[in-house]
Amino acid sequence: MKQYHVLLIGYKKKQSEPFVVALKKRYRVSIAQSGKQGLAIADSDYPHVIVLDTVVMRTSGERLCDKIAGALPDIPLVYIHEGPDKPRECGADVVLMLPFTPRKLTNAIERLLPKESNNLIHCGPFSIDPQTRMFSAYGREVQLTPKQALLMQIFLQNPGKVFDKKDLMQQVWHTQYVEDTRTLNVHISSVRRAMEAEGRPRLLKTKRGVGYYLDVVDTRANGKRSSKK
After folding, report:
1. What DSSP letter does each residue of 85-148 carry, written as one string?
2. Are residues 127 and 43 in the same domain?
3. Does any domain span residue 228?
4. pTM, 2 dp
């Protein structure tokens, strides 16, 4: 059974522990004491849902909510708020007003989690679920970030096709600015690590001076290897 990852930003034992106990019964939970720490965790271990509890933090809740939502727009955000009035629009997908039960929090998270689909994308030894971003290589499952998953889909759906950096920047980051390709290079490296297994050849290859292509048998073409275009 798949275990989803929930990131809780804001924690004080007395107030937060009942919620943490409930969350850990269903999910893998990471805890951050501050917005800065939360962003750092999300950068290295991408969560499926973020729960932001600024009630236990000495900071402007709505301002931090804006910051988290702006920095991580692909991740659903639950904002815990305390006060007589609902907060203004702050980028959260769900706002929970204290007091509420742990069950109400887990129900809100369940509604935001990606639903597994029947539309798996297959190519050779690889497959990916576009909804959950769960990638499988040689039977080993890897959870991808949204950008990694989008790159992976591009290559799996077009085996043998060479994509130059401008193509990839446009499709994944919606920009053709390629003067600085460090972000793309980092993501290509992470996609390669997800694909590779000990004793297996590297299949996401570089065509020098042009771009990248997936050198794998296209099972949709009766087992024939696609030629590079």
Report:
1. SPPPP-S-SEEEESS--HHHHHHHHHHHSPPP-S--EEETTEEEETTTTEEEETTEEEEPPHHH
2. no
3. no
4. 0.62
